[in-house]
Amino acid sequence: MSLELPQRLFVRWQSLVEPQTYRATVEIPDSARELMRKRERVNCPITGWADEYRDSLAVMLAPGGVVKVWVSGSCFPATPVAHVQAEVEPLGPYGGKSGGRYRPLEPAAKAYIEKYGVPYGSW
Question: Which Pfam families has this protein been placed in (predicted)?
Answer without folding.
Answer: DUF2931
